[in-house]
Write a structure and sequence with these properties.
This protein is an alpha+beta fold. It contains 6 helices and 11 strands. It has a 6-stranded mixed β-sheet, with helices on both faces. Strands 1, 8, 9, 10 and 11 form a 5-stranded antiparallel β-sheet that branches.
């Protein structure tokens, strides 16, 4: 599976949304837009139009990142009808959200439904680099509703903002498992294993990339 990453988010107690293991609708953009540019209650097409207006371009110049799943067929069709560019990814919506904050990717918007815990991880990462994000939990059956209640969530239709999913001094870290757009995966080169990681912190706005070599101690005589 390409683009697999191992991730971790850290923050003070109570500052990360205690999200149950259900789905979450997600909408995210990078920094530089006026507050309120995106609204999860509106259609994907309306959000693309709002982003294009704020950016000073036409909707067909906006690129949206969408997880390639059957459940997103309607979103993809709506965006294509608008002429919006689409970057389909096979997996890893955490990396998809982060991509909106990296000008080098060309991605303006992330939209789609994925795991709620992953949504909180993505929010923590976006808090470190800037941007806007909204999320709304999706429940497929009574068992998932009951799970949410056990986790202290009573408003099942609430739209969470970025600061409601992750606030304060968040730290986000990820290491590539397989090669992807965000990070290189684990590779073996002779007696050495290499990894690439990224570490972000909200209070400083720093983004550090770390390349690490793990050498075989037996071949070093240790």
């Amino acid at each position: 599976m390409p683009g697999a990453i191992a991730t971790m988010a850290m923050a003070e107690g109570g500052t990360l949304l205690n999200a149950p293991d259900v789905y979450m609708q997600k909408l995210a953009i990078g920094p530089g837009y006026p507050n309120g540019t995106i609204d999860l209650r509106k259609s994907p097409a309306d959000n693309v139009r709002a982003i294009a207006k704020a950016k000073g371009v036409e909707p067909n110049e906006i690129i949206a990142c969408v997880l390639e799943r059957d459940r997103h067929d309607a979103i993809i069709a709506e965006l294509r009808a608008l002429g919006c560019g689409i970057k389909l990814i096979p997996d890893g919506d955490v990396a998809g959200v982060i991509a909106t904050a990296d000008p080098g990717t060309g991605i303006d918007l992330y939209v789609g439904t994925g795991g709620a815990p992953e949504g909180v991880l993505a929010a923590a990462a976006l808090r470190c680099v800037g941007g806007q994000m909204q999320g709304r939990l999706v429940f497929r059956n009574d068992d998932e509703v009951a799970r949410a209640h056990r986790w202290g969530i009573d408003d099942l239709t609430r739209v969470y903002t970025l600061n409601e999913m992750a606030k304060g001094d968040c730290i986000f870290a990820a290491t590539g498992v397989t090669d992807g757009s965000l990070l290189k995966g684990v590779h073996r080169r002779g007696n050495c294993v290499t990894t690439e990681s990224i570490v972000m912190r909200a209070s400083t706005g720093t983004v550090r990339r770390v390349s690490t070599e793990y050498r075989d101690l037996k071949h070093r005589g240790l």
